[in-house]
Amino acid sequence: MTSPTALDGAILAALPAGGQVLSVKRHGKTNWSTGFRIDVVIDGEKHEYFVKIVAQKEYVGMSEAEYEGQSALATYIPDNTVAPVAWGFFDRDTSKSFFLTHFRHLSEDTPSASDILAIVKKLHLSSASPTGKFGFHVTTFYGPPPMINDWTDNWEEYFTRQFRANLVYAQQERGEDPELQDLADEFIRKIIPRLLRPLQTGGRNIKPTLCHGDLWDGNIQIDVKTKQPILFDSCCFYGHNEMDLQCMGDPRYALGMDFISRYKDEIGASEPRQDFYDRHALYAIRNNICTAGMWPQWAPLLTTAKEEMRRLLSKYPDGFDGFKEEVVCSC
């Protein structure tokens, strides 16, 4: 689709009234969506838009998800997001959908760790769930896998149901793995409660924070005009802020564990603080399982996930029953 006349009527209706479409050019593609730049003249002035088209019926909800997620992010970090314009279903075929935003000229250079940290800090400290619960008001997508965003007061419940669903997805894509499933069953029974239940017991609690949900260097680029880092391709939910770091610690990402430690030092770790790095490992396991399911070349990450699960099971063999409150000397 490179001709203005090829644009679906729903997309044309979402553009400003009275505008003339000059050109439609391909701009980016994933396995589940295709992007186009649309140049429009309005009252003699040129404007640029970006539309992402989801043409596979099973992923049609992605457009609404991105619209709602980016809208939520723009509430707290308006200078650092791709602010949405519209979303909708095609007039000609409601099994297809689109997400429309203003086009930004982005540099692929990764912003500095300090700049990213400042934005993430602002997002995590200033945002709050509209319901006071964990979840989101629409289904969002971590690539193809949907997030189970039903509202809940319990973070352990939210994460556990997502972890289970991601295990199913990975094995649907890469084949059944009895070793992985047996290991994961014990992991779910012992390690998830051990690392997440203390966040909301013993007088402790955590605030449901707006998370970008897929925060890694590939989804953060620099606006050539404003010089500001821009966060895009979100998978938003209100959750434990530390889960937003799930993609950042592994060596395959640009930021690495130094960024994780800087986050801990500047923004702080949830109590119990001594579990911070193991909670990060838990969230990273979930990311590795999803990534292995999405991309065949990353299938070996399932082995990495198994190794990490074994490590944590060895460290916490008694699960939550082995949790001991940290004793602080008042002398």
List key phrases describing it.
three-stranded antiparallel beta sheet; alpha+beta; Aminoglycoside 3'-phosphotransferase, Chain: A, domain 2; five-stranded antiparallel beta sheet; 331 residues; Phosphorylase Kinase, domain 1
Question: What separation lies between the terminal Cα atoms?
Answer: 73 Å
Q: What is the structural class? A: alpha+beta
Query: Count of DSSP helices?
Result: 8
Strand order of the largest sheet: 1-2-3-5-4
Mean residue pLDDT? 94
Major sheet, described briefly?
5 strands, antiparallel
Rounded to the nearest angstrom, the radius of gyration is: 21 Å
> Total strand count, please?
10
Q: Under CATH, the topology of the largest domain is which? A: Aminoglycoside 3'-phosphotransferase, Chain: A, domain 2
CATH class of the largest domain: Alpha Beta
Helical content (DSSP H or I, runs of 4+): 25-40%
Globally, the shape reads globular
What is the helix/strand order? HEEEHEEEHHHEEEEHHH
What name goes with the CATH superfamily of the largest domain?
Answer: Aminoglycoside phosphotransferase (APH), C-terminal lobe
What oligomeric assembly is this protein in?
single chain
Total separate domains: 2
